[in-house]
Amino acid sequence: MTDQTPAGIQTHLPNAARMYDYYLGGKDNFPADREAAEKALSFVPEIRHSVRANRAFLGRVVDFLTRQGIRQFIDIGAGLPTQNNVHQVAAPDARVVYVDNDTTVLVHGRAILGKHENVSIVEGDVRRPREILDHPDVRAAIDFGRPVAVLLLAILHFITDEEGPQRIVAELRQALPPGSYLALSHVAIDARPEAAEGVTDVYRRASSPFVARTGAEIARLLDGISLVEPGLVNLPEWRPEPGTVIPYRDIGDYFLGAVGHVGG
User: Which InterPro entries does the record match to this protein (predicted)?
Assistant: First the structure.
């Protein structure tokens, strides 16, 4: 980042969004973020591959939903802008709302993405999904009389059990119109349970807590949702492009994803 740091951004504390940016090889991060990210990588070196698999998953999900006729997207916990953002993959006439509660994300999102037609940047907290859906800017951008896709990618593992991740998904599922979709990706600890404590401790000292969950626990977040094939799977295995050779096949075990029909 440049020396011109906007007010409200705490550069001395590790930030989950900026750590994610660092894993992706981005430049929107500070020494505290890089130090914390390297500590997390010392426990799970595959994190870099996993977050790239998550970014590729986002692209395939948006492409799939676009082919299903979806033209409205709400990306909750959008994170810092990077390559293949939702509006870049979706149809040219699609309306996209990026939602986050992180100051860094909001400042950079508005500077980079806010200039695009049919793109909105909204401050909102995934813990209060009803407030997001009722936000005036969301209501102005999204027609809730037509199908909507809500993306919850790499966000719910920063939500504690006490904050109710299953409640969050249920509230969104029940509020969306018929023909809508919900996509989710979540870190899974089944493959490396011994590393979970170390990574959890790193994020405990950062802007967001990290909650380690098993595949079975992640599946329960999707109760009541009719998943499209292939269901909840390792990210590289979710509808890969024909002929794709899936690299790092084992790293998908650290990130699971699914897309399902909701609404109505």
Answer: SAM-dependent_MTases_sf (IPR029063), SAM_dep_MeTrfase_SAV2177_type (IPR006764)
